[in-house]
Each structure stands twice: as structure tokens, then as C-alpha cells.
Amino acid sequence: MATDHALTAYEAVAADYDTIVEDPYLLRWVTFYRRLVERYGSGGTRLLDAGCGTGRGTLALRDRLGYTVTGCDLSPPMIEVARAKPEAAGVPFVVADLRDMPDLGSFDVVTCMGEPLSYLADGAELAAAFAGLGRQLADGGIVVFDMTTLGSFRRDYAVTRVVDRDGRFDVWRGGPVPVEPDTVVDVTHDYFARTGDDAWRRVSSRHLYRHHSDATVRRELAAAGLRLVAAHGVEGRKLTDSVDEDACRKILYVAARQSGGDAN
Predict the structure, then answer these.
(1) How far apart are the first and last CA of the chain?
(2) d(CA 151, CA 222)
(3) What does the DSSP 8-state code read for residue 86?
């Protein structure tokens, strides 16, 4: 099994994660997921959110969809943060590795939102993750997940970016700029928060993000025994019916168990 760069990265930031990573677009992503679930789902109401981190997306999906939710993540400290939230009372949050998923139940929808799949090192790990997510599906269930495009890796990941947030600073340093699909971008994130007049606290983490191309995703879904139901692009605030590795920020996929019929 590959070195757990993701586990190391999130153990370093778990206690501060919800402060460090303020996602103003979370509800937009949840809205996109909701549209896909309502369009392609079976109508069931059991949802597993894989790679859930501190549970913010899991709880937002619960609140927007009205589903019974479960969350799982590789990082025990991130799961502990999720469990400790008052609004998470009664929600099962469990530790699980995407590459070797245990049997967590039978779900009508399995989601994997954000970056979890980008930490997988190669096509073999991606296929293992897809197979594990597929094993959680009830009859008629769907897996919904997103992938960062090559254009996004070039524009947003392989750059140096400094953000000043009322005396708190985020410094993102990424590279090299990916030329070919299915390559890795190495990102270092430093978070600085003032703790006194002349004192600062620094939290650092390193993230190895792999671009998984549309062609790779389609190939490894088939290798995992899943069929592609739909693929949609994200351009700005819009969910589109076409996918473009350069123009789109993300590609959202819907997959189901192989049961005959052609993939889109």
C-alpha cells in the first residue's frame, strides 16, 4: 500500500481544519450533488459520504436531502472532530480507507465529494476505491463523485497563492505545472494564525494530488465492475452536460453496478 501522504497531512491539520479550510462554495457543491441524486437516484434515502473529513459536507447533504447519513474517512483525528460536533449527534462517523473499504451497510447513494480520490496514487488504487464504494450500494443505488480537471490543476494547484483573512494567512505552494494527464501536483500548505502581539502559530501540511483523467476514470470504473451512468462538467456556477478537461473546474460522475446496458 502506498505511503499515506493524505493521512499524514490531515493528522497535522485535523484540530484546525474547520478554521483553516473555510469553503464558501460548500452549499453550491451540495446543490450539484443533490441535483444528480434526484435525477439519477433510486429514491431511497440512505447515504454514505466517503472521505467525509470533519463531516461538514455529510451534514449539509443530510440537511439538504433529508437522508439518513453515515460518514467515513481515512483519518481518525478528522473523524473525532466530526463526531464531536453537536449537530452530528446520532450520525455514525467511522474510520475507513477508500482503498480497502469495509462493509459499512447498504446505501442508496454513496458520495465522495471534494479531494479524497485525488490522493489515490494510481489507477489500481482508484479501481480499488471504486470497487469498495460499489460494494456499499443497495439495489438500484448510485455512486456520485467529483474529479478535479487538468485545467484546474494547472490554474489553481500548481501555483503559489497567499490569502490574508483578517490576520490569518494561508500560503499555498504547488508544482510542477502538469503538462500531461494523470500526473501529480505537490502542494505545501502553511497556515499562520496570530497568537499574540508578536507571536504566530504555524500549521503545515503537504498534499500530493494526482490528476485522474476522464479516460482513466472511465477505464477504472469498468475495471471495478461499475458502469458510468452520467458525467457532467462544472463551469463557474453551472453544472453542464458536457465535460472538458481544460474549461471545467470539476467533472461530476454518477456510476452504478454493472447490470447490462451501455455506459454514457
Answers:
(1) 32
(2) 25
(3) G
pLDDT digits (tens, 9 = 90+) for 131-185: 999 999 999 999 999 999 999 999 999 999 998 888 789 999 999 999 999 999 9
What distances in angstroms separate CA 141 from CA 36, 101, 173, 226, 227, one per listed residue? 12, 17, 39, 11, 12
Report whether 146 contacts 30 (CB < 8 A): no
CA 89 to chain centre: 23
The kind and range of the H/E element at 160 are strand 160-165
If pLDDT is split at 50, 70 and 90, which confidence band does 13 have?
Answer: confident
What type of residue sits at position 33?
Y
Structural contact between residues 207 and 238, judged by C-beta atoms closer than 8 angstroms: no
- 8 A C-beta contact, residue 214 and residue 248: no
Q: How far apart are CA 221 and CA 144, in angstroms?
A: 12
Give the containing element (helix H, strand E) for 125: helix 123-134
Angle between helix 5-13 and 76-84 (nearest 10):
40
CA dihedral 28, 173, 71, 214 (to 10 degrees): 70
What SS3 state is found at 47?
strand
pLDDT, tens digit, for every residue of 28-67? 999 999 999 999 999 999 999 999 999 999 999 999 999 9
